[in-house]
Amino acid sequence: GQQVMQIPQYQHVQEGEDFTTYCNSSTTLSNIQWYKQRPGGHPVFLIQLVKSGEVKKQKRLTFQFGEAKKNSSLHITATQTTDVGTYFCAGTGGTSYGKLTFGQGTILTVHP
Amino acid sequence: SQTIHQWPATLVQPVGSPLSLECTVEGTSNPNLYWYRQAAGRGLQLLFYSVGIGQISSEVPQNLSASRPQDRQFILSSKKLLLSDSGFYLCAWSVENTEAFFGQGTRLTVV
Question: A97 pLDDT exceeds 70?
């Protein structure tokens, strides 16, 4: 079945440093989505990428979708304490219509 | 606008007791519905997903079951809870392959 792997599991940074999390799928994806979960909260949608090689930006966040549509990354420039939380990628694709499979998430800690 | 209701927010249940968690969606038709479980500090494990009434796909063998008696209602159940069933249960919905919207979650502790 479809598997989505995400690394690293944990990342500790000093405020102002950059952060990147990577996502890899065992199968070609129709799209990739990114979510953020604050401590004690529920995942909240950030963005969706659909096209091969697509790059999207949201302020300090840059999202990329690989050419083969099997990998993706989220990069945060100059982290702030408000960036703390768990970042998840999630994908749908292949014959698994309607099935949204999440990666394990990267827990980001930002030290002031 | 679309909303999702999930209850209760917290639940403490003894081992061997039954479980019923309910999730309802408003403002959309024929959504995809999901139940996820999250252990503390861990990722989201897909338990069940449904693309229509009565259509339930189970992702992992377990002590739980799901039902979708109405288009916008998704129920997670167990006949006898185990200690290992403790966790944070999240219901979510989406339409086609667009973003998923999550409920507030139920924190279940089995004692």
Answer: no
